[in-house]
Amino acid sequence: MIRPPIAAICWVVLAQAAPDLVVTCYAGQSWQETFQREAPKTWQKYAERARRLQGKWTSTTRSITQKEVISHEWGEFKQRDGCYLFVGQSQGEGQKRDVRGELSAVNPYYAFQFRRSARNDPWLITGFGANLWERGSYSDPQFQVESLLHRPYKFGGALPEGSMTLLDQGFVIKKVVPLQRDGEQLVQVDFRCSFADRASSRGLHSGSVVLDPQRNWVMRSFTAKAKWGDVEINYVVALAYAETRDRFPLLKKITADRRVTGTNRHFLQTSEYDLEEKDVPESEFRVSAFGFREPLGVPPPGLTRWYLWFLGIGAVALGAGWYWRRRVLQRRALTSAKPDPSTVEERRSPTAQSG
Known about the structure:
The chain is an alpha+beta fold. It has one domain: outer membrane lipoprotein receptor (LolB), chain A. Helices cover about 25% and strands about 35% of the residues. It is built from seven helices and 13 strands. The protein has a 13-stranded antiparallel sheet with strand order 6-5-4-3-2-1-13-12-11-10-9-8-7. Strand 2 and strand 3 form a beta hairpin. It is extended, with a radius of gyration of 33 Å.
């Protein structure tokens, strides 16, 4: 427990270097308590804002030992409420030929899957309708999009535990300490995995992660050890970000160095991302966006929302026209039924009677 005088000094120092972290020392809390309290909330905010992100990506894996490119992949993704689209194209070993391209998408009316052999080949429909994939599978475009966008605070893209955070069940936090790097206040978290205690366990065992508490507690780098049977793999991963005007971190690049212990197998995977915040129309999640006809009974793209407004406006206009027409007819009926004053006076006049 930090005593008040020391806490006051620490508060002044942090107030100048990291205003967002003043509460840590002033309240006498440890960095681990601050991490466990603040990180989940900021990760949730990050995920909510990431729902407006669209973008493209590329990923290249090189063999450091053989000094050659062994795979190259690229693609793009789009999303909006109720709609997801994910495209991936891979290139064969040695860049000799294109291997496959896959597209999966879902909208409020249906889901579909495309496939092609080469990058410039036309898409072929391989699936259409509902229940084309299991929720959370690699064929699920929502899972693919969210896995990519959540990589700043999950282990996605490098480790089997891609959908997990440091605070999920199975992770044991060993130590959380402050770290200064290039004038920035960062936090280092050392961990191990409880499921690694099982002899038959496969995947992540232990590691150390550097987080940025002033930018949504996103990962800046991590080292990790994973095991697959008797094979031990060591990872060294670095993440780089661009920033929006309000300093929201947009994932820009991930560099993952992977070595297999006891062998000369050494790989370097470089993934780059071009992300932006923008809205995408629902029409881009339809088969018609790729030259196919929309199924019968499905509203045409672009009209699914506006046609309701036009129908509503039309109904109001018809109602108003009917009301005013009724008023006009009622006035005409009253006018025709009312006697002419001149005629009435003429009938009552003595002169008229004597004439």
